[in-house]
Design a protein that fits this description.
- Belongs to the Glu/Leu/Phe/Val dehydrogenases family.
- The protein is of the alpha/beta class and 356 residues long.
- 44% of the residues lie in helices and 17% in strands.
- Strand 7, helix 6 and strand 8 form a beta-alpha-beta unit.
- The N terminus is likely disordered.
Length: 356
C-alpha cells in the first residue's frame, strides 16, 4: 500500500497533513503489500536540485513519531545542501523497524519501490541502520542512489572535525592538539571522529549504548571511557553528540561545561530555543546541518562519479566561521544565523527559476 501526500492534496490524515504542509513538498507513506513495518519518505525542498537524504531504519514508539523524524531530518538536509554549496535539495526517509531483526531484502525492496514512484526527486543514501549493501538492494527499484559504492561515514567525521578546528580557532587554538573532546556515540561516524581527534593530539572521552564499541575505542584508539557518567556534561573543551538526535534538552544545556558543541548527530537540539540558551551561556554551537555535511558532500561526489573530493570538505570550516561571526555581529544564535544564510540561498535559487 502506498499513499502519496502532497501539500496540494486535501483530505490526507490530519497529523501527517499538519507536518506535510509546513513547507514540505511531499510525503510518501509506504508499506509492503504483505504487511510489516511502515516507511516514510519526505521531500522538503527541491529548489536547488533533487532531494538527497539517508534511509534510516530505526524502531520508533509509533508511526507518527517516525513520520515526524523523517520530516524534521529532511528539512535539515535542505539547509545542509544549501550551506555546503551543493546542487541538491533536502529529503529523508525512515522505516519504523528494528534494523537488527526486521531489516530484510524484501523490506528494503518495498521501500525502494516507493522511492521509485518519485521518479528521481528523492535520492536515497546510507544512514543510521543502513549501509552500502542495503542501498544496492534499493537501487534495483529506483533511478539513482548514493553511498551504494562507498560509506559516507568517514567523510561525515572529517567534516565534523573540520568544524571543530574552526571553532577552536575562534578561541585562539591553532589546532585541536591538547584539547579535550567528549563524543557521545562511537558507531560508524563517532568511531572515525575519535580516530581523527586522537591522530591530531586531542584527548577524547567516549560513551555508547554498546559497551563493545566503548571498549574498542579505548583499547584501539586510546580514548577514555565515561564510566557511567553523562559524557555530554563532562569537564571538556568540546562535546560532540554523535548518536541519536534531540539529546541537548534544557536541563543538559544548562549543565554543559564545554565551551563548544559540534554535533555529528542530526537534530542534536531537543528544541530550537536551546540554540539561544547556548549563546546566552557563551557556548559556541555549530548547527548539525553545517558540521556533518561531509557525508552529503561524499554522496554528491559519488553521484557525479568523482573519486577525489576531500578538498571540498574545507567549505565546512569556512561556513562554520562565517555563521558564528554573523551570529556575533547580529546578536543572534548560530542556528538563526545559519538558517538565515540558507534561506537566502534558497530564495535566490527560486528567483532564478522564476526568471527562467
Amino acid at each position: 500500500m502506498t499513499v502519496l501526500i502532497d501539500r496540494r492534496t486535501p483530505g490526507a490524515p490530519t497529523a501527517l497533513t499538519t507536518f506535510a504542509e509546513q513547507e514540505f513538498e511531499q510525503l510518501l507513506v509506504s508499506r509492503d503489500p504483505a504487511g510489516g513495518p511502515r516507511g516514510f519518505i519526505a521531500v522538503h525542498d527541491t529548489s536547488l536540485g533533487p532531494a538527497l537524504g539517508g534511509v534510516r531504519v530505526r524502531r520508533y514508539p509509533d508511526d507518527e513519531t517516525a513520520a515526524a523524524d523523517a520530516l524534521r531530518l529532511a528539512r535539515a538536509m535542505t539547509y545542509k545542501a544549501a550551506l555546503a554549496g551543493l546542487p541538491l535539495g533536502g529529503g529523508k526517509s525512515v522505516i519504523n523497524a528494528d534494523p537488527r531483526t526486521e531489516k530484510t531484502a524484501a523490506l528494503l525492496a518495498a521501500h525502494g519501490r516507493a522511492i521509485g514512484l518519485l521518479g528521481g526527486r528523492y535520492i536515497p543514501a546510507a544512514d543510521m541502520g543502513t549501509g552500502p549493501e542495503d542501498l544496492r538492494v534499493i537501487a534495483q527499484h529506483t533511478p539513482v542512489v548514493a553511498s551504494a559504492e562507498r560509506d559516507p561515514s568517514p567523510s561525515t567525521a572529517a567534516g565534523v572535525v573540520t568544524a571543530m578546528r574552526a571553532v577552536a580557532a575562534r578561541r585562539g587554538h591553532h589546532s585541536l592538539a591538547g584539547l579535550s573532546v567528549a563524543v557521545q556515540g562511537v558507531g560508524n561516524v563517532g568511531r572515525h571522529i575519535v580516530e581523527l581527534l586522537r591522530a591530531e593530539g586531542a584527548r577524547t572521552l567516549v560513551d555508547d549504548l554498546d559497551p563493545a564499541r566503548v571498549r574498542d575505542a579505548v583499547t584501539r584508539l586510546g580514548a577514555l571511557p565515561a564510566d557511567g557518567t553523562d559524557v555530554l556534561l563532562a569537564d571538556v573543551d568540546l562535546v560532540c553528540p554523535a548518536a541519536a538526535g534531540l539529546v541537548l534538552d534544557a536541563e543538559r544545556v544548562d549543565r554543559l561545561r564545554a565551551w563548544a558543541v559540534v554535533p555529528a548527530a542530526n537534530n542534536a537540539l531537543a528544541g530550537d530555543e536551546q540554540a539561544l540558551r547556548l549563546r546566552e551561556r557563551g557556548i559556541d554551537y555549530v548547527p548539525d546541518f553545517v558540521a556533518n555535511a561531509g557525508g552529503l558532500i561524499s554522496c554528491e561526489a559519488e553521484i557525479r562519479g568523482v573519486a577525489e573530493f576531500g578538498d571540498r570538505l574545507a567549505v565546512i570550516g569556512r561556513t562554520t566561521a562565517e555563521i558564528l561571526a554573523a551570529a556575533d555581529a547580529d546578536g543572534v544564535d548560530s542556528l538563526t544565523a545559519a538558517t538565515a544564510l540558507a534561506d537566502r540561498r534558497l530564495a535566490a535559487a527560486r528567483d532564478r527559476t522564476a526568471r527562467a
